[in-house]
Give the backbone structure.
Amino acid sequence: MPTDYTILRVSVTAKDADTLRTLLRDSHPDVGGRVRRNQDGSLTFDAYVSPEQAQGLAREGVSVETVEDATATGRARQAEVGEGDRFAPEDAVPQGLALKVRDI
C-alpha cells in the first residue's frame, strides 16, 4: 500500500447555495456527511481531499479550514488493530480445503 499520499478532512463554508452549487460542480470533492446551514445563512460541509485539492477549493465566497490529517488518523487507528484471531483457542488447527503450510 503506497504511503506517499495525504488526505485531509476539511470544513468548507460557502456564503450561499449558488456558491456551493458552483463549487461542487467545478471541483467534485469527496463530501463526508450532510450540508449544514449556519446561523448567518452560509452552508458548511466536510470533505476529504488532498492538500492540493484543498487549496483549489478556496475561492471568493468559500472558506476552507483543515480539520485533521485523515491519513494520519487512519494509520493510528490501524496500529490499534491486532493480528490473528483473538477469539480462537491457541491450539486451534486451521480447517478448510487449503494446504497446511509448515514452518521450517
